[in-house]
Records
---
Amino acid sequence: MTHGTPRRSFLLGQTAADREAASLGQVINQYSNEPHLVHLSRKAMAGEFEICLPAAIAGEATAVALEALDLVQSLEAQLSFFKPDSDISEINREAANAAVEVEPHLFALLQGAMQLWRDSGEAYDLTATPLWEVWGFARRAGMIPSPEQLAEAQALVGGQWVELDEAQKTIHFLRKGVRLNLGSIGKGHAVDRAVEHLLAAGVSDFLVHGGYSSVAARGSAVGQPFQADTPSPHASQAGKPDLLSSPWTIGVKDPLSDERRLGQIELHDRALGTSGAQFQSFRHRGQRYGHILDPRTGRPADGVLSVTVLAPTAAAADAISTAFYVMGPEAAMSYCRHHPSIATILFVPESGNRWKQHHHGLAEESADLLAALTKP
């Protein structure tokens, strides 16, 4: 059910980006047994953002959800690489000439991205923009760059060219031509800001997603408060509702078959992000080149079909899923072992149109998915 007011227009339907994200494996359960959800949506960041509320609390929470969607739209003006008056565009124009002051939330986002650049062995890099352009993905017209073009672009890539001053909240580029693009983290950041707004207003039961590939959930799908003293994740105490009987569930599809669902993840006070290049790619002489680039080699990353990450925030889930796509399963598993708050599942191709999965940190909330993945 969609609510609207004369002052606002909520446009429904899927963009190409939404279709890609859904095909990568994330589908919000529409609760055939518990269908009482209110959906509010807004076009932003080349996709659609949606807030799902339990009908039991929607009367009180709808106005807050609309404010959160307003916030998401305002963030597009800050984060967009394509808007010439955005904060990111100003940084890209000016930061090589002098330090540029950065809004605090955006500065914290950039700090997190730079930390991931270090922790991922430079596999995640916001400065990979010149590579993205030289491969033609900025124009959605893929092309094979010449060795000279590739070398010129790669000379401008690397977190070593970015200097952040925490005390002054400024950013400075140490080489002209360096540019940032937040396409791998911006939607997750917008989801997180919407979550913050809802929680600050006292709304504790909701799900927010940006095109299905960036998802964050809090509380229950029926609008009941979380029982912190419930002894078991699947047990109820007398007189107390069982939160997990109506979880927010995210379906995970087979990466090679959009029609086949492998299982689901029950999302509780956590975020989920998915990365894959299956639907943004081009072929040249029989070889497929995807839009997720390895900044260390300058070439499209290869060897992974899709990655799903569970993390405390949607921005972290988005960025880490991109990093894992580049890093591959062995390095991704090592990262998870050193970062206990992160869980993941990676699908890698095998011969004969088959895949192999690697996972770490998935627990009871993914029991049926794990059973499907590990059966003979």
---
Amino acid sequence: MQWWCAAQGVAWTWSWRPYPGVWIFIGLLLLAYLRFGGGSAASSRQRTASFAGLIALWVALDWPIGALGSGYLASLHMVQFLLIALVAPPLLLMGIPAERYQRLATWRGFGLVRVLTVPLVALLLFNTVVVATHWPGLVDSLMSSQLGSFVLDVSWLLAGLILWWPVVSPVPDRPRFPLGVRMGYLIVCTVLMTLPYVFLTFAELPFYATYELAPPVGVLSARDDQRVAGLIMRLGGGTILWTAAGVLFWLWYRRENDPQPIRVDSRTQSR
């Protein structure tokens, strides 16, 4: 029995396989959220966001997407990346009440969080992780073991949380990073993610031995599967980031155009 999805080198079968490590990981995240992240203090909308983020992680890590993406299809490996790094993190962060964020800001170790989530640092760190974790040598070495596959998945999740923190989290307060600048931040991220898309989509030969030598699944060759992976990164990642930028634009527009509330002097009102 495998505890985490990793490359196996055997023919794919649609027979369900358990991955208890994935269940334990998701369960620990759920317990951490209920104990520290929100629990009864969270609104129904916040709890829904957090649970949606956990479900996105579960779908990405567990059978069948986790198993297929970890050793058979580069295209589903890219779907995993999008779910783990770009879909789950903002949902998890949106599920935390402002009160819990303020409490976190008083923690002694929050200084490291403050540094890592400086927008420029977060942007460069995330895209460095993206390039490194799609580099053929690193991917092939990590995907061959369960521990390596776990490290790869957790790296995506942590990098995604760092990327989305300046956009979603209210702490630390950054008055020079308003909604309009956050939109540009996400758009720049789509540009920086072009590099992996280019070498995946336009390479003449397959990059990853893991997928090139894997038992075939479906009708796509390893080269075509890699090309689909690049297109998924470009179109799927761009759609997620541009949609988030669109939501920020809508919030910015409402903030700028909503009429200011009329203040009534209580003494005048009493007359």
---
Amino acid sequence: MDTAKKYVISGRVQGVGFRFFAERVANQLALRGYVRNLDDGNVEVYAIGPEAALEEFKRLLSDGPRGARVASVEESEAPVIHRYKRFEIEGFW
């Protein structure tokens, strides 16, 4: 049974390839959802998948890519949105 989580990652997480990192890791874990930059400098991630994969995803998000300095990862429960068939970067352009 899939569940969904939303993560808000703060710190030095924009301009360091964080969205590409999250997309790559999510695809490796077979998660669905999105990652996007927020106006306040944080990054928001919405992910759908098995609980164990979501736990691993959060652990990897806490590390981030080289160049990032993750200060915190806030996790919250979220409803499963079925329109997401893959993991994507939103607001890319």
